[in-house]
Amino acid sequence: MEPIIIVLIILVVLVFIALIKTIQVIPQASAAIVERFGRYTRTLNAGLNIVVPFIDSIRNRIDLREQVVPFPPQPVITQDNLVVNIDTVIYYQVTDARAATYEVASYIQAIEQLTVTTLRNIIGGMDLERTLTSREEINAALRGVLDEATGKWGIRVNRVELKAIEPPTSIQDSMEKQMRADRDKRAAILTAEGIRQSQILTAEGEKQSAILRAEGEARAAALRAEGEAQAIRTVFESIHAGDADQKLLAYQYLQMLPKIAEGDANKLWIVPSEIGDALKGLSGAMGNFGPMGGMGGGGGQAPQPTERREKPSVTD
Asked: What is the DSSP letter of 152?
């Protein structure tokens, strides 16, 4: 009985193993390659799948989700013979599990090497300044080449990104100095513009102030002249209204002579010829009240039309 029990136990184990190998559960977003006697048979999709035990075998399980692969920095020479280190990130997705298994030995390594060589070709035709400012152009060119080359491998490159572009240390120092000089230049220009604008505004203010001051002085002079004219007109009208005689006019002129002669600058003053007649009348009137009457009564020579008398200087 013991040999029969042993045989039964072996059969049960074999059946159990066969069931395990027959039923294959594939997770969602995954695929499995089935080979029969070493030859590709079919691709198992997500879900429960039945295979022939001990005949069919699972060659490879492939994740169909989008994958992100960062590549280490790669030294690349630009057109102006400068070495820059570029970090890249590739976003790819397996679209054909069979091609990804049989068309290339290791598609990750193949994508990395293809990325490096393509990047060197692209950067080799650009100078450093264009390389630093043309990331979108480099990404688009790199993605186009990778997508075309990896299509036969059952790979679709969705996106290519340049994480960092690091120029040499000496170039970085030069770039920092240039940026600092540009900032200083812009600051100096802004300061000069501010000073210029301030001077313009100050000049405009002084101009407006001078114009307003001149207008005020002109208006004040006009008002003064108008007031003096009004005063002269009033005096003239008063004199004519009072019917003043020559004696009063001569007396008023004699009172104004000291004011006319005031000031050191008045070296010369003019006596009108009409004042002679008034002085004759005034002297005649004063002769009646004092010892100078004989002087007023005598007939003297008539005064010249205009007499010019020079005022003695203060220093004389």
From this structure: G
